[in-house]
């Protein structure tokens, strides 16, 4: 067999793939990152969807990107600027408006108008989550150990986990309750007002078919709260990248190239090459091969193991577990080009308001979210869904022609798998229904639309290469997190195929633009390479 062309090949140029490629190259490995599209970024891209209008096709806000990655890749020096998001405005059908922000006093004042008891409870709730976040934050940058201790390397991780639990043992019971209960129950024990509970708990239905009353959904409260810096903030902490999310991944690609990695676009990987049960490189769609003893896949678990790895190469029980891994998207993404700034009914209209700099939630009580999610589980698009929207151009006017704006919309309870018909048939009808609903909350929005882009879960799968159109590479329920992500026994980025690693959002710590998945996976691949090198040097045959 001819010598490999590279030491490592990374499949997919999403943010985690670029991070992994950077750290591998910085360690001295001849590394190539292969991206099937003509632009890098995966779910973190900025694209023109109409002449003069640019928007993010996937993720549209930045949160939880690890500080080490900011520093190591010198992202600020490379021009990444993040504007803090404004408050979260929750709009309800009866005219109720509730604005929550990182300013706890301001949030309390807003909540007090609905419930004095809930206003008093809010600081306790924030303090509880901030404290519980201290159990989660140290784990984000670590490798999830296998509790069965199948490898010697699992022992330090288990000891570290045990030490963390021992130091925070007073929190363990509360954490176990949070991980296993529903948002409805968790918030029901703390708040009385339905609008307050909905404004905090709507996160439960993001990227999942479960409703707020589904056991295990309360974890999302902690996951969203665990953003770096949010311990001193309020209910949420997000930011908008000037130029869109593609600016982040373009900077990451530049950092990877500077570290010595090659980053190729228009290079679609068709399969992972195996020899003797070991990964030895990849085959491209154009027939070329790229050889390397290390392969890191930034593709989602199903795409990697059921699509790229040759059939029959994986243990049957592993394949069965991957098939049952839940990764069907549940939302429609709509980008609008509009000729005026949308204004919410019942809100001030003089100039750009703070809420227009944040994220707006066309919201409903938790019970109504449950109903819409039940419809989605039955394969029917939710008839009255929760809708999220934001206006990136109030932070960066260059994304649209002067005086015009971009509105990015996320419509929940829209299942990838439909009971009847196809998304190609009902795409525009579903988008029309969403716009009609928004018109009730933002009068004049419909008439202001110049262009629109509609991306159903099926479109997101096709365009971004994510199975089921799931932006997080799989549901973030507790049975698909930490030592269980993507499947139990294989949460340390390694796979049953020697030399093949998983580095995307389908690994610990899950979705979101953290970069931790790529960084952690690269660290494990480098450790294995170092161990193998030591074994070769110590082998009696090495000197013969």
Structure, described:
With 544 residues, this protein is an alpha/beta fold. The protein has three domains: 8-44 and 60-81 and 244-326 and 471-540, 3-Layer(bba) Sandwich (FAD/NAD(P)-binding domain); 101-237, no CATH class; 328-467, Polyamine Oxidase, Chain A, domain 2, CATH 3.90.660. It has helices at 15-26, 67-72, 104-112, 116-140, 154-167, 169-180, 183-188, 194-201, 219-225, 246-258, 301-308, 316-323, 366-377, 423-441, 445-448, 457-464, 516-538, and strands at 8-11, 31-34, 46-50, 53-56, 82-84, 88-91, 97-100, 239-241, 262-264, 269-275, 278-284, 289-291, 294-297, 332-338, 359-362, 387-390, 405-411, 449-455, 500-502. Helix 4 (116-140) packs across helix 9 (219-225) and helix 5 packs across helix 6 (169-180).
Give the SSE layout:
Blueprint: E1 8-11, H1 15-26, E2 31-34, E3 46-50, E4 53-56, H2 67-72, E5 82-84, E6 88-91, E7 97-100, H3 104-112, H4 116-140, H5 154-167, H6 169-180, H7 183-188, H8 194-201, H9 219-225, E8 239-241, H10 246-258, E9 262-264, E10 269-275, E11 278-284, E12 289-291, E13 294-297, H11 301-308, H12 316-323, E14 332-338, E15 359-362, H13 366-377, E16 387-390, E17 405-411, H14 423-441, H15 445-448, E18 449-455, H16 457-464, E19 500-502, H17 516-538
Parallel strand pairs: 1-2, 1-13, 2-9, 6-15, 13-19
Antiparallel strand pairs: 3-4, 5-8, 6-7, 10-11, 11-12, 14-17, 14-18, 15-16, 16-17
Helix pairs in contact: 1-10, 1-17, 3-4, 4-9, 5-6
